[in-house]
Amino acid sequence: MNTRRVVITGMGAITPLGDNVKDYFEALLSGKNGITRIERFDPAPYPSQIAGEIKDFEPTKRINPKTVRRMDRFAQYALYATQEALEDSGLLDYSDLNLNRVGVYLSSGIGGIEILEKETAKMMEVGPQKVSPFLVPMMIPDIASGQISIEYGFKGPNFCIVSACASSTHSIGESFRAIRYGSADVMIAGGAEAPLVKIALAGFSNMRALSTRNSEPDKASRPFDKNRDGFVMSEGSGVVVLESLEHAEKRGAKIYAEILGYGATADAYHITAPAPEGEGAYQAMKLALADAGLSPDDIDYVNAHGTSTQLNDKFESIAIKRLFGERAYRIPISSTKSMIGHLLGAAGGVEVIATVMSIIRGKVHMTRNFEEGDEFCDLDYIPEGSRDLNIRYALKNSFGFGGHNASLVIGRFSS
Predict the structure, then answer these.
(1) What residues have CB less than 8 Å from 108, skipping those under 6 apart?
(2) CA-CA distance, 337 to 404, in Å (whole number)?
(3) Averaged in consecutive runs of 10 residues, what is the pLDDT profile of the chain (415 residues)?
(4) How open is the CA angle 222-257-245, to the nearest 5 degrees?
């Protein structure tokens, strides 16, 4: 079967550190903190009271007000980031675009949980007749992907991959495959999440997954550090435009980077804990490299899943050491979550963007708050600040509850 090269031609992001790609990445390079005490509601009753909260969000800057009113916050984030990505790509001005060959795989881990919480409370207070008729279409995770296709007329492959915190990395990987094997010429891919509501905070807190470093929110997300005590929940969206190289070159598009390989595996072990020795993570990275036709020696940088939880950071580090051997100690590794927290199903999207920007700029961001490792986390996590780095090939990891693992190999574009 003939395969096609797949390139990234547009990017859009909204995160706690900026509502566009440029501001977001500059903040990462500066080592800024995006974690604060929650302001959207009173978090005092909860063990964890901090989050990566987006402040002063104005969706109508990019989205029609009528459309905004009929979307949950997660879908607003998705459409907001998508608009930036499409404008960045130049596709909106391309008159020869075949809409039947443009698809959307836009993920969310938990979808419209804000509208679900709101309407459930309304039902309990005044009865079922007051529940909004828009509850279901605002709540379902796939509505963001559907809304994007409706907004822009994209009629190609369209669905939502839900694999917890690996969701948007899976979406980008499957979009890569859709183009590589001819199902589409262009794919809009990534994820969006808006989980900062009381029920989600209670659920994650009660399973003891979240940091309770409430008095020091700027020091709470500390991937790979020996004093890590859980992840910090966050929100936002990261979206990339993927195209076949032929399609991108035909329209004279700028090309940021190339997707070269993708690996996806299952732990088949536990609903929340990673497999022993990071077996699933190791296999996903190994498959991604094989898919790219590369060896571990070719990788110059790893953008880790790096959640700031005890087990993930331990087993991701073990898996990296198993894959790279002694060279693991010489590969720069960083966790974007150290500054923006964990965007759950959207994490892979914003982290792929950070990885691509690192390749373009020749700079990698630090792992904020990493002060001292433990016996397992003893690699180069870039603790001292941003670092100049010539990157040919980078590896991006994402892992999710249920044992879902995804890895991508992203390379500097060369014609």
Answers:
(1) 74, 78, 141, 144, 160, 162, 167, 191, 192, 193, 345, 346
(2) 18
(3) 92 98 98 98 98 97 94 98 98 97 98 98 97 97 98 98 98 98 98 98 97 98 98 98 98 98 98 96 98 98 98 98 98 98 98 98 98 97 97 98 98 95
(4) 150
Residue 414's DSSP bridge partners are none
* Tokens describing residue 35: 């974690």
Q: What is the rounded CA–CA span in Å between residue 176 and residue 6?
A: 6
Which residues, at least 6 apart from 198, have a Cβ–Cβ distance to it below 8 Å? 41, 46, 117
Q: Please, what is the Cα angle at 240 between 53 and 301, to 5 degrees?
A: 85
Which phi and psi (to 5°) does residue 85 adopt? -60, -40
d(CA 311, CA 294): 28
Report the distance separating Cα 388 and Cα 165, nearest Å.
29
Report how far residue 99's alpha carbon sits from residue 148's, in angstroms, rounded to the nearest whole number.
12
In angstroms, the CA 384 to CA 395 distance is 21
Count of positions (residues) in the chain: 415
Q: Which of 120, 107, 91 is nearest to 352 (CA)?
A: 107
First to last CA, the chain: 22
CA distances for 73 relative to 59, 67, 166, angstroms: 9, 12, 20
CA distances from 1 to 37, 156, 182, 369 (A): 53, 21, 10, 47
104 has which bridge partners?
158, 188
How far is residue 204's CA from residue 139's CA, in Å, rounded to a whole number?
19
Active site residues: 165, 305, 342
- Strand 102-107, strand 158-159: pairing: parallel
CA distance 91 to 41: 39
Q: DSSP string of 185-225?
A: SEEEEEEEE---SHHHHHHHHHTT-B---TT-GGGT--TT-
What Rg value do the Cα atoms of the chain yield, rounded? 20
What kind and span of H or E run contains 168? helix 167-180
Q: Are 26 and 34 in contact (CB under 8 A)?
A: no
Q: Cβ(111)–Cβ(195) under 8 Å?
A: no
